[in-house]
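[Automated response] Your request has been received and processed.

Submitted sequence:
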Amino acid sequence: MRVVATPADYDELYTQWQGKTVALVPTMGALHEGHMALIRYARQLADVAVVSIFVNPLQFGPTEDLSRYPRPLEQDLGICRELGVDAVFTPSVDTLYPAGMANVTTVVPPENLTEHFCGEFRPGHFTGVATVVLKLFNLLRPSVAVFGEKDAQQLMVIRKMTRDLHVPVTIVPYPTVREESGLALSSRNRYLQTEAEQQAARCLYRILNRIREQVQASEQRLDAKTTLESISRQVLGEVAHPDVTVCLQYLEAVDKNTFAPVQILGPDSKILIAAYVNQVRLIDNLDLG
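Generated structure:
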């Protein structure tokens, strides 16, 4: 496995791979079993598997956790080596933003995909995501790129950007990887310090799954707003703990293909959720079909 930090060093590798297909897994490091599943899948999709590790400042807001975001690089490289990754790209901020982030040309996704959900509470986040992903695509020239479905809005934005800008990369989604309890794996799960916080975090999936169960069991059309409010209130009441506060940031029903809000729940609906467990922000989603 080669670890490269500059475009020039990667170009040297890429020349050696002439005629081979490349699958990319873009990450911010702090790799967990979810990332590992993406990497294993990427190895099946192409001749060469590349992982990028870069904590992208452009997608963090001024009050977000950029400074404390976990960066266990040596551990991450060990995981990549064990999984048979061919190359890991570990650029510096100066490498990807040589003129500084204040002077960089950015990719601005359409408002209808970013003005709600995470985009409403993290202004500029998806501009940062789209910009760095396009940079990585241009520098690393993958044939395919694998993204987890846990970050559903991000996946939608990247697919849209790739189509609209005619980027010759196939975007391949991978199902959300979960703990046995249903909790979606995330690098931010490391911030859950106590057993009580970990137990409370599992309520996100419990809410989603209970909504799906109710829709599948019902013989009537269920109103989205009423159903989501009722079930979330019920589940949050079950996980009440004096040392843990669970605060829903949003819980919304959308069409899984367009992300347009829906009033009636059905098999084409997707439920999106974001919540703070004390100070830890977690997101998840689930298709109802």
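Summary generated for your ticket: The longest strand covers residues 246-255. DSSP finds eleven helices and eleven strands in the chain.
If you did not submit this request, please reply to this message.
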